[in-house]
Amino acid sequence: MIPELGQGALVVGIVLAVYGAIAAAAGAQTGRPALIESAQRAALAVFALVTACFLLLAYAFLTFDFSVRYVAHQTTLSTPFYYRVTAVWGALEGSILLWAWMLALYTLIVVLRHRGERDLYPWALSVMLGIIAFFLLVMTLPAPPFERLTPVPADGRGLNPLLEDTGMITHPVALYLGFTGFTVPFAFAMAALVTGRVGDAWITTTRRWTIVAWYFLSLGLLIGGWWSYHVLGWGGYWAWDPVENAAFMPWLTGTALLHSAMIQERRRMLKLWNISLVILTFGLTIFGTFLTRSGVIASVHAFSQGSIGAFFLAFLGLVLLVAFGGLAWRWDRLTAQGELDSILSRESAFLLNNVFLVAAAFTVFFGTVFPLLSEAIRGVKVSVGAPFFNQVNVPLFLSLIFLMGVGPLIAWRRASIDNLKRNFLGPVAIGLVAAAVLHLVGVRSTLAVLTLALALFAAATIALDVLRGTRARLRTGAGLARAVTGLLLRHNRRYGGFVIHLGILLVALGVTGSQAWSVQTEATLKRGQAVEVAGYRFRFEGLSATQESTHARVVGTFAVSRGGGAPIVMRPSKKFYRQEQAPIAGVDYRMGLTEDLYLVLGDFARDGSAATVKVLVNRLVSWIWIGGLVLTLGALLAIVPDDRAA
Amino acid sequence: MTTNQNTKFLVGGAVIVLALAYLIYTGVTQSAVYFITPSELAAAAVAGKAYRLGGMVVPGSVHWNPASLDLEFALTDGKGRVPVRHTGTPPDLFGEGRGAVVEGSWTPEGYFKATLIMAKHSENYQAPHGDPSSAAYEEMIRALQRRAPR
Amino acid sequence: MWRWLIPLSVVPVLGLLAYGFRVNPRDIPSPLVGRPAAPFVLRTFDGRDVSLESLRGRVVVLNFWASWCYPACYEEAPALERSWRAYRGREVSVVGVAIQDQPDAARKFIADFSLSFPNAPDPDGKVSVDYGVYGVPETFFIDRAGRIRRKQTGAVSDDLFRREVEKLLGEPA
Predict the structure, then answer these.
(1) How far is it, in rounded angstroms, from Cα A405 to Cα A424?
(2) Domains in chain C: how many in total?
(3) Which CATH number fits the domain that encloses residue C83?
(4) Which member of A66, A624, C55, C103 has the lowest number of beta carbons within 10 Å of its beta carbon?
(5) Choosing among C1, C70, C73, which should be mutated to test the A contact, i.e. which has the most A CBs within 10 A?
(6) For B33-124, CATH number?
(7) ipTM of this predicted complex?
């Protein structure tokens, strides 16, 4: 009964979404408010229906309704309560449902905030409902969450054990909030194209939406990295896997959009560019889903294949052709009115930042589809791996860090020599001194020196600006604490941006440190034997085994000591799941500000007398996660309502 | 925009595009990995070139030394046969008579030096429960449990 | 007019992505394809004998499955039964081999899906070793001359069955 209810709700949802999209468009075209109000009610109903679907599916999970294929696939009778809830979005069908639900939620918020407006909003509503209709359609045909299974199995297959982790629960939620968030700016941009009001209205309306979407996408990427680091057991957090690239590309173009939108607001430039960026970003979110779900590109992440790829490809084609077609149609109105005065100006720094970000997105795209490209053109299967992505992107990212220092302080329009001296003499000096000091203390990696010096330069410009602002406020007689908080809150957008920059710099610090200074080794140890890595002694104490609700676990015990200090015990393990072909690594790690200890249990003698262990000492990795926290603070600061406007 | 400025931007843009093209070109030539089968490799192996080699692990060819972490085996596609060496623990899915994909390069000494052995699994496909390695594991887990950890 | 190049430039990218559907990046070719199929003699669950020799001249679809193989074997079982019925009058035989399965569980599986083609256990695992089976489901399409022509890893669909079998039926014995 429950599955049929859910299925029914989906079908009604499609009908209402399509109706709402048409009604909103017709209302906008004819100027009849009744039609738009009807569309709004449809949006509300769609939200209610998708929410109901979500609850029904969750209910099926909680009651072990194995007559539902998706439930049987994702749980077993031994799956704990917690993971039965999160298993709802643990695989394809549920994740599409989550996606649709978030879209419906965003649409609801848009309705609540903008109802009564007549310019762009009705068209934007129409576009959003149309996109929801597509996702609901996907759920009725290629990825039906409520499909029945006959005969009903006595027990289900169970969630992929790699997903039994808090990181994997929050990761898709954050990522999808990011992906779906970009639908709103896209919808308003489409509305701008349709109505021909391609001025700044759509940019200012969606500014906060873009930040929110960008923030969730960043968070999703970071949580994904965290999951990869502490679950997958290869010691890294980013592998340039197609699935990761799929989320990274819209992040890059979204970041470009955040910056170039400021130029349009300020100087009325780059209209065409901004619309293109928003189309590209939204297109890339759809492309990402296509890539991960179609099986077109091989990935270490195992995902199902099927007709869903064709659905997403068709939708992607429709979106891109219509959107870029609209762009060409409105070409004359989109060509810029403002113009660039000088190469030495904030505009050009931002422009350059955009060029580099889009270039990075392009290289990631190119590398990801390269196997297809080479097979289609030359008939040979060739792929490019992490070295390609690193090699091409490192210069781009270094340039971006440099621009991160330059952009916020250089003058608009045309920077004078005086302005440059006043703002950059100090930071450049700090960067150079840092490089010299790093070299003197024995850092031999040119790349590490360069990155850290550039990061310090960028941090110094931020510090300089905050210092100046605070000093100005202190002069008015305020106390130090009040001066700083006042500064941050009064110019929250500017300083929110700065805090986000600091977060990114910390992430860069962590990435540099882990790439340049991490060490690892692999050794087979008999009981009582030890291996030394980076001043630590890892002694193998023995193996034990335990039976847990969903799996059996073989645990290796290692005593880890440094110098004469008291040893700590680390227990890396291997988990044997009934439904899996291969055991799964249970990493044990100790995090620290300067280094993480990270143990992975490898092969072992069947009698427990010896074990192979992989020992990693990863440097500065924690700063990546700290950077993520700083980034969160910055994003919060940037989206609190402007108190100048209040 | 003045013509002078236009030229400046065209030149600037061209420089950036060319630099990017150069980066991508060198990146691809240096890190391209060719997908190949054992018989194709046996027919035309270029030493030093990066390959991804897929085939079946020849039964009886696996020699694994846990102390030195040296792993040796041969891959076949029914026609060609390629000796492979690797340093490190074989992945859990690895086994004789099973498919394996390795990444690495051909050495002048006449063997394939693998830097990576891949164990991919698909969610619609399961290894038998009774397969020798997992049966051994189950046995061992029971033995380790009987001994009860301290 | 140049502006219309922007939307048009999307087309080759889409074409490339669509091309991706034609190639399977996960394919590892089986060394057995093109070789003579290993002979087998099996005693089915209902006590009849079936051997490859007795099926010579017919197209044989040899399917390895197990009752614990969820979901793929559960997905393909109805498709196999449907296809077997559809091709009953033609020179096609479907043989199921349950590997490493409890006899009771395997019988229940056969009953649940009302499988009417011959299904047999592989008690000593000899047949699955001969065919290099390392997971379930795996399906081998054997031509009239007794050569393995295709190995399918993962569930068989109605479409795939029809395509492969029609091809092999079209060939002279």
Answers:
(1) 9
(2) 1
(3) 3.40.30.10
(4) C103
(5) C70
(6) 2.40.50.140
(7) 0.82
